[in-house]
Amino acid sequence: MYNSPTRGGADKAVTPWISSVPTPGEKPSALSGISVLDMSGSAGQYCGKQFADLGADVILVEPVTGSPVRREGPFLDDRPHIEYSLQFAYFNAGKRSIAIDLDRESGRRILRELAKDADLVIESERPGTLDARGLDYRSLSALNPGLVMTSVTPFGQTGPYAFYEAEDIVALALGGLLYLGGYPETSPIAAHGNQAYLAAAQFASVASMMALLSADDGGKRAGRHVDVSIQECVTMGLETAIQYYDLEKTVRKRASGQQVMAGVGVFDCLDGQIYLMAGGIASTRFWENMVNWLVDEGVGEARQLLEPAWQNHDYLATAKAKSIFEGLFAPFARRHAKTYLYQSGQARRIPICPINTPRDILASRQLDYRGFFVSQEHTVSGRRLVVPGAPYRLEATPWRQARPAPRLGEHTSEILAGLGYEPTARAALLKSGVIN
Amino acid sequence: MSRLPLHGVRVADFTWIGAGSFTTKLLADHGADVIKIESRGRMDSLRSSRPYKDGVPGINRSGYFADRNSSKRSITLNLKTQAGKDLARRLIATSDIVANNFTPGTMEKFGLGYHDVREIKKDIIYIAMSMQGAAGPEHKYLGYGLTMGALTGLQFLSGLPDHEPAGTGTNFSDHIPNPCHAAFAILAALRHRRLTGEGQYIDVAQTEPTIALLGPTMADCSANDHIQERSGNERAPRAPHGVFQCTGNDRWIAISAWQDESWAALCKVLGDPPFARAPEFRSAEGRWTRRREIEEGIASIVRYWEAEALMSALQRAGVASGVARTAADIVDEDPQLRHRRHWVKLEHPEMGESIYNAPPFRISGMRSTPVAPAPMLGQHTDEVLTEILGLNPAEVEDLRQGDVLT
Predict the structure, then answer these.
(1) B257 shares a domain with B345
(2) In the prediction, which pLDDT does A72 show?
(3) Which of B266, B290, B325 is the last residue of a domain?
(4) In this structure, are A312 and A204 located in the same domain?
(5) Distance from B179 to chain A by nearest Cα, in Å?
(6) How far apart (Å, rounded) are the C-alpha atoms in residues B346 and B342?
(7) Which residues of A fall within a CB distance of 8 Å from B237?
(8) Strand order, beta sheet including A264-269
């Protein structure tokens, strides 16, 4: 069941890929030398971004009219234009763009030529669509046996729902996360920001790396088809819901808008809200700190919270306990700003934090210290966008963004030239609308 | 079937609670030998978190702990003793990866910080997943999954505008963004090591992956000065797009039919209701402008439908729709997850047969799945000390008597 004990610590170089040689003095990139074709849309583009930001050469393959993500808001200056989508700009920074019509044979030929030299293809077409075009895994791996193709679809390549239609909210629903979100008295409410699509893109990144790292015993990488289901990715985020059902036969429901127990929940403050978690997991470690804080801040009646009853989880969950706690804590919180409550509570080792708005996050002193936000060029307008930067710091092979998001077809000519297409051939393809 | 991609990779796993354990589960389910280093004195608090098998508490009975620790081995070491630290160092010397998600400074206190570990194993890949990163004015602040939801903006942004911020109802960052980002970083570092022989230090702040996912929302604020608000289930410019109540007890269906074709198909399934015939509704803009009216109209009909039947009818007509499945539905009813064999039942020594998540993807020619249930606390101490570190049973017994293996 486990690996033989002698093998650990001896993980060997078995993957004979070319690594590009970094310029002297510059740290190398972890994924340099990996060539990726990103043919995906909303459910895969973050995967391509993760590869690009660690140094892979990622080519975004777009339809001649542009990736559908270019039509997704928010837009810079609220201008609905394919070069102004902030969603596109963020998820496609670091990639090059080639625009090809894959409904035409001459377009498909270009894709096949690109796939011959690619290590990874990311796609998110409905199952069967690429087969009809002769661009499915089987066809491409015949040209390039070591190819990894990662397919991200709502429900996977086969099965009773394989051809069901879905958008983010539908995958959240069938994956079970929707049912846990929202308030008891309202409908279930979906998480902000395409979290089902993004979950799939993140798992697609992990799965693609697993496939790229796998080698058969000869040391040569075997081709792989990776089948990612968005619904299935959502089920990874259900926390304890499955186990509550499996082990205790209870079905977890949405429960926002109420204090779970005394000392845990959302409280209004002077300029927004804070989240307090002084009860619950390891509550006993923080409870006394919190009571002392309240007392020092002039809430003398808080001393009653030191009585033994308050060390009992069952008591904390009673309406009486919640109401006493709220009567003491809520008026105190309302007198102070988020930052004050956060910093002075944390200074006393109490798990409390602000419910940050996007603006609060942009102003965070911790993120500022870490240099988390980066400035990214927006080519068409000449503006600079402040966006999240490295989500992980790899000391020897740092995250870096090599280039801004591409304009539609910005690199078509360059990439075709690399494949050996002469200027006249490129002009003919452009004229016939096969490329853009 | 091929060898799993992480066959031969050993992880000295100091992670606990949520995000860290879920990261190393991904590695373990893909063939890595993940050895979880625990102690009775400072136990992973998930071991004492609900739900428990049959509702009966016990350190080897938590489902929360179990699902996050499939395919791993557990040893107990008392790192407060010198002999315990020495054993940890010897284990690290045989490992490829060291993982922890403590507050910065904790591993250093045990003499197991990156610089210490590098002395033991030069090419180690060392990942630290603290709440807010290795340094900075708030790097020692306390945090848990839920406080992270608040810090990252996900809580503020999810829910209804006139209600308090709701978030996802779970510790979302713990389960998807952090484990996925950490695992990806480790795999990238492993590739680099295979090519160059060089290991490295990886710092993941548990707030940053989730904020990275919210890039477009952040850019909307930084570039357009627009602070997005909670919008319930509305997603401009999509209408109708919402969650509607069906017959039965708390049954709901999500429907998105904002494009002309799917709107027409939806109307047909709903019996071409009079409210839907307004000429303005023929365009997506018109539907968005009068979305309240449309969604009330849909709700008034859908409430007489059974959710599963409506989903089947809508999907036959090509309308994106899905029942808001409960945990019970997902385990017992969902034919698609069953087809994909997502839920894996494993026999645990104390919990009996219980359910685990398989990785949510399939790699051709490879069976990556949980192969062993979560370990009992210290279940593999003897095995690891004798097989990997070469101790004999008498030496193990001496260590046990010396309070080193607790």
Answers:
(1) no
(2) 97
(3) B325
(4) no
(5) 9
(6) 13
(7) 73
(8) A264-269, A272-277, A352-354
pLDDT digits (tens, 9 = 90+) for A216-227: 656 788 899 999
E-strand stretches of B158-300:
200-203, 241-245, 252-256
> Are A74 and B219 in contact, with CB atoms under 8 Å apart?
yes
Q: Rounded to a whole number, what is the distance in Å from the CA of A132 to chain B's nearest CA? A: 20
Mean pLDDT of all residues in A270-274: 96
Spatial CA neighbour of B253 closest among B296, B299, B307, B292:
B307
Tell whether A393 and A283 lie within a shared domain. no
Q: How far apart are CA B399 and CA B406, in angstroms?
A: 10
Specify the amino acid at residue A245.
Answer: Y
Digit-coded pLDDT (tens) for B127-142: 999 999 999 999 999 8
What domain count does chain A have?
Answer: 2
Task: Give the pLDDT mean for B254-278.
Answer: 97
What is the mean predicted confidence (pLDDT) over A257-284? 85
Tell me the per-residue pLDDT of B300-310, one tens digit each, with 9 for 90 and over: 999 999 999 99
Q: Which residues of A touch B96 (CB under 8 A)?
A: 8-9, 11
Percent over 90 (pLDDT), chain A? 85
Q: How far apart are CA B7 and CA A4, in angstroms?
A: 9
Q: Computed over its alpha carbons, how large is the radius of gyration of chain A?
A: 26
| CA distance to A234, B246, B255, per residue, from B323 (Å) | 14, 9, 9
pLDDT at res. A5: 40
Residues A151 and A68 in one domain: yes
Q: Is B86 one of the annotated active-site residues of the chain?
A: no
What integer pLDDT is reported at residue A25 of this predicted model? 72
> CB–CB of B223 and A386 under 8 A?
yes
A319-334 helix and A283-296 helix, angle to the nearest 10 degrees: 50
The span from the CA of B12 to the CA of B36, in Å, is 7
Query: Is A186 or A18 the better-scoring residue by pLDDT?
Result: A186
Chain A residues whose beta carbon lies within 8 Å of the beta carbon of residue B361: 203-204, 206-207, 226-229, 232-233
Report pLDDT for A424. 97
Report how many domains make up chain B: 2
Q: Which amino acid is at A89?
A: A
Query: Which pair of tokens denotes residue B86?
Result: 């020495």
The reported pLDDT for the residue numbered A219 is 73
Q: Are residues B179 and B257 in the same domain?
A: no
B301, B325, B349 - which closes a domain: B325
Write out pLDDT tens, residues B25-69: 999 999 999 999 999 998 999 999 999 999 999 999 999 999 999
Residue A320 and residue A207 in one domain: no
Rounded Cα gap, residues B185 and B169, in angstroms = 27
Give the residues across from B202 on adjacent strands.
Answer: A394, B127
Distance from CA of A343 to the nearest CA of B (A): 9
Q: What token pair was written down for A406?
A: 């591409």
Residues B59, B30 share a domain: yes
Between the CA atoms of A340, A343, A347 and A352, what dihedral angle is there, to the nearest 10 degrees?
Answer: 100
Looking at the complex, does the CB of residue A32 fall below 8 Å from at least one CB of chain B? no
